[in-house]
Specification:
With 223 residues, this protein is of the alpha+beta class. 18% of the residues lie in helices and 41% in strands. It has two helices and 13 strands; from the N terminus they run αβββαββββββββββ. The chain starts with a helix and ends with a strand.
Length: 223
């Protein structure tokens, strides 16, 4: 009888321990979901002045010191200059200038306390460039401390899913403000300009009023 009582007590202790462990795991899961929400932001890109032939949105996330940018395009994707289903998977990505002369996906990054900022360009094939500016459109230079890596892509006639990673490890950023934009050049010579917001009579992706997404970098952790 005494052994049975001890066994019951031990079983109760195990069940109590399992209950607390389950509660801890569920709590951790909730915390991770909250943190993931903080580190993932999505936004729709707005066309400038006229309706666009495509709709575009971008999801921005922080992944191990990199900014993961996922662009989702729908509409007349096959008509985009630079559209090639096989180019993304088969090509070796190169650093190139004048990527905006074809369809160009862009991101702008600034620390809210500083005047300098960065511009990232990437083509549908994965070719890329990063520029640093000392102030608004001033002293543009190529940024050699950072790089862009192609991540994943899907192409169809009416839809493009494009993901790339922008390495931020060597950039001094505390409170990041991010702008997302796109130059959609079409094979027939037409063009659409899209961004998170437009402020002015002409499209200007460099204006900080369109840097609408925010992340913080504290003690080596992005929030």
């Amino acid at each position: 009888m005494k052994q049975f009582h001890v066994a019951c007590v031990n079983l109760q202790a195990v069940l109590t321990c399992c209950l607390f462990m389950n509660l801890a795991i569920r709590t951790l899961h909730v915390v991770l979901e909250i943190e993931n929400e903080k580190m993932n932001q999505s936004a729709v890109l707005v066309p400038f002045c006229k309706p666009s032939q495509i709709t575009a949105m971008c999801q921005v996330a922080v992944r191990g010191g990199c900014l993961e940018l996922t662009y989702s395009l729908k509409g007349s994707c096959e008509q985009l200059d630079g559209y090639d289903r096989g180019a993304f998977s088969s090509s070796v990505c190169e650093r190139k200038d004048h990527l905006w002369e074809q369809t160009c996906l862009e991101a702008f990054l600034a620390d809210e306390s500083k005047k300098d900022y960065w511009e990232m360009n990437v083509s549908l094939s994965g070719d890329w460039n990063i520029f640093c500016f000392s102030d608004y459109r001033q002293a543009r230079t190529e940024e050699n401390r950072s790089q862009v890596y192609k991540n994943n892509a899907y192409f169809s006639k009416n839809e493009i899913y494009f993901s790339c990673l922008w390495d931020l490890m060597q950039l001094d950023i505390k409170k990041a403000r991010i702008g997302i934009s796109m130059i959609a050049n079409y094979k027939d010579g037409q063009q659409d300009l899209l961004a998170l917001a437009h402020d002015g009579a002409i499209a200007d992706f460099h204006k900080r009023s369109s840097f609408l997404l925010n992340f913080s970098h504290e003690n080596g952790v992005w929030l």
